Amino acid sequence: MADTRTGSSTWTYCHGCRTVLFALTVARNLGVCPECGRHQRLTATDRLAQLLDPGSAELLEPPAGLPEDPLGFVDTQPYLKRLEEARRQTGLAEAAVCSRGTIGMIPVIVAAMDFRFLGGSLGGGAGELITLAAEAALLERRALVIVTASGGARMQEGILSLMQMAKVSQAIGRLDEAALLTVTVVTDPTYGGVAASFAALGDVIIAEPGARLGFAGPRVIEQTIHASPPPGFQTAESVLRNGMIDMVVPRPLLRTTLAAVLTIGTGRRRDDDGDLADPRVVDPSGVAAGNPADSLALARALDRPTALDYARMVLDQFVELHGDRVSGDCTATVGGLGTLAGTPIVFIGTQKGHTAAELVSHNHGMPVPSGYRKAARLMRMAAKLGLPVVTFVDTPGAYPGIEAEERGQAVAIAENLRLMSALPVPVVAVLTGEGGSGGALALGVADQVLMLANATYSVISPEGCAAILWRDTAAAQRAAAALQIDARSLLARGVIDAIVPEPAGGAQRDAPAMAAALRAALNCVLRELRTRPASRLVAERRARFRGFCVAAPALAGTMS
What is the pTM of this model? Predict the structure, then answer.
């Protein structure tokens, strides 16, 4: 958008819908066109004013002696002259403005880039300011929020501008080591050295609608490989589908979204539910024997609550995150940050659906490799931030497709098994429906494994077992009984730790009651686990799985 002054009135022109608008209307809409929703570029100071709680901003003054012209560079004019002009036009010392303050009452350091200053390019001065912001966050133990807007590294500073990528990324790495939350807010545009360094390293990455994000911009692509990018290429919406960011958030909702992420991600606990009745059944003799085939039918019922249903009913709040940061965003695996009875957690689940369309959109609850890698990314975040992990499992198994195999399905599952075994935080898994094979176990290596009364857990589906061993899928009921896939049998064998009873007729008959029971059960489990040191959690989790099918000790003096 561009401002046009007519008399005493100020008008602005939207480059998206080509509408002339009253500037005050656009300003009240936080710089978003009320006609087409296009998000215009904001100054760094406007960013700080919109994001920080009113009255909380305390600018971090740029230090004296910021680097200016290390190469004595001259193109059509001296670089120093360009710097002076940028400073005169913007009133800024460099392409970033930094401040301490609060967002949703959570203490933060915010570094906001300003595209007006030489295209928000990353030079020694901007790199130094953002690094100092990260160091202030480290010193004061605050979360760091970086708002990016950049065309890339500053050419006039040569290789030294390239070094800023590593310099700022190193500072982000120190925040990782200190278990401090980092959040990136991607605005239009974010390219080159910024996109390929600190912009991509946030624990949570949020983008504004339409913001462009990428390493090589369209002109570079066209000039280098002589190919034209497709429509929508590198937009926030496209990058979200490709698994590189967590969410696209309209500007009016940005502060509240950041406040929720910061509240959970910084581990702020509130009072829990108090002393709730513990619904867990831990003695198999207290569970009536049933028909495993009946349990399977209930576990597969389309009206049974899904992972996202439970996230909304069991958790106090839930912020869904997306993407594996590698190749995609599997719709069969969902997850994000949440609170359970006041306790911040990372929630991960396998998602099916209630209708044919929902089942198709979520791949029938069968994750592909990007789903397991998304889960792994969230679990690593949980380990960094010290948040418990709660997984809800309802899947017939990992997706057995050709593309999944080509993208490393087995590797993704194996890496999750190893990762979960060593997570230094409490891990609780809940089998809510089908627990199918290694695809379910990839979210099931936990300190405590709970199971709904009508859920199932098996090495293979009864139909698959019947087809292989009896060569007759009609023998599925016989296979289900033989495999002992029901909750009572699994509790007796120690595969699960407790059963959570379901309402008569199954969880789908009274979803709110089922959610309340799960909430109480999980609250009790987390109370038990959260006081245990990380070393004990890991040792006991490893001992749990080491104990399955232990060989009998050899008698002394026997000969083999």
Answer: 0.92
CB contact at 8 A, 444 and 391: yes
Distance CA 15, CA 467 (A): 61
Task: Band the pLDDT of 9: cuts 50, 70, 90.
Answer: low
Kind of pairing, strands 389-395 and 427-436? parallel
Q: What is the pLDDT of residue 7?
A: 41
Q: What's the pLDDT at 462? A: 84
Please count the residues of the chain: 560
Residue 140 CA to residue 129 CA, distance in Å, equals 16
Radius of gyration (Cα) for the chain, nearest Å?
27
Structure tokens at 233: 């290429």
Helix, strand or coil, per DSSP, at residue 156: helix
434 pLDDT band, cuts 50/70/90, is: very high
- Residues 216 and 271: their CA atoms lie apart, in Å, by 48
φ, ψ of residue 520 to 5 degrees: the values are: -65, -45
- Tell me which DSSP letter residue 216 carries: S
Give the span between the Cα atoms of 484 and 360, in whole angstroms: 29
Token pair 């929902």 is at which residue? 358
Instruction: Identify whether the C-beta of residue 184 lies closer than 8 Å to the C-beta of residue 198.
Output: yes
111: left (phi over 0), alpha (psi -120 to 50) or beta: beta
Tokens of 405: 């195999």
pLDDT in the model for residue 272: 65
Q: Which domains does the chain have, with CATH numbers?
A: 1-40 (no CATH), 41-265 (3.90.226.10), 284-546 (3.90.226.10)
Helix (H, G, I), strand (E, B) or coil at 452: strand
Of 407, 400, 217, nearest in space to 328 by CA: 407
Tell me the CA distances in angstroms from 435 to 143, 363, 442, 451, 526, one per residue in order.
37, 16, 10, 10, 22
Q: How many CB atoms lie within 10 A of CB 375?
A: 28
Q: What's the pLDDT band for 8 if we cut at 50, 70, 90?
A: very low
Provide the greatest CA pair distance for the chain: 105
Rounded Cα–Cα distance for residues 39 and 30 (Å): 9
End-to-end CA gap in the chain: 84
Please check whether residue 345 is in contact with residue 429, taking contact to mean a CB–CB distance below 8 angstroms. no
Q: Mind giving me the DSSP string for 376-422?
A: HHHHHHHHHHT--EEEEEEES-S---HHHHHTTHHHHHHHHHHHHHT
- Identify the burial level of 321 via C-beta atoms within 10 angstroms of its C-beta, where 0-12 means exposed, 13-18 middle and 19 or more buried: buried
Q: Give the DSSP H/E element, type plus range, for residue 192.
A: helix 192-195
> Whose CA is closest to 100, among 43, 141, 149?
141
Angle at 143 between CA 138 and CA 146, to 5 degrees: 100
Tens digits of residue pLDDT in 344-380: 999 999 999 999 999 999 999 999 999 999 999 999 9
Contact 108, 144 (CB under 8 A): yes
**From CA 530, how far away is CA 448, in angstroms rounded?**
12
